[in-house]
Amino acid sequence: MQIKDIKPKTGSIDIVGEIVDKSNVREFEKFGKQGKVCTAKIKDDTGEVSLTLWNNEADNISVGDKIHLTNGWAGEWQGEIQLSAGKFGKIEVTEKSGKKQESSEETTIEEEEI
């Protein structure tokens, strides 16, 4: 599926794209449980759409990452389509932004960030 084809109130969304923007992660408490949430923008060749990231997703996904959303859900908030993994979906990072799993490259990136 491509971003241009996403309609609100649609499930079983399978999409691949790149995270091009991400808001600050905020913490909340609901029903006595702590959680985290933020909004990101995902882009493919056909457009951009908002993607809500919850808890570990919010911590582990960064701008520049390429992701694969499977069995996602498209909702609508204030006239804007918003994707999320929902209860049954999954977001997999297929490629980290410039960060490789090899320790020597991670050290270089950490030093550059300082």
The number of helical segments is 2
The biggest sheet amounts to: 5 strands, mixed, barrel
CATH topology: OB fold (Dihydrolipoamide Acetyltransferase, E2P)
Question: Could you report the average pLDDT, rounded to the nearest whole number?
Answer: 87
Q: Architecture, CATH level 2?
A: Beta Barrel
CATH class: Mainly Beta
Name the structural class: mainly beta
Strand order of the largest sheet: 1-3-4-6-5
Report the radius of gyration as a whole number of Å. Answer: 15 Å
Number of strands: 7
How many structural domains are formed by the residues? Answer: 1
* Terminal Cα span: 39 Å
Tell me the β content: over 45%
What is the helix/strand order?
Answer: EEEEHEEEH
Helix content: 10-25%
CATH homologous superfamily title:
Nucleic acid-binding proteins
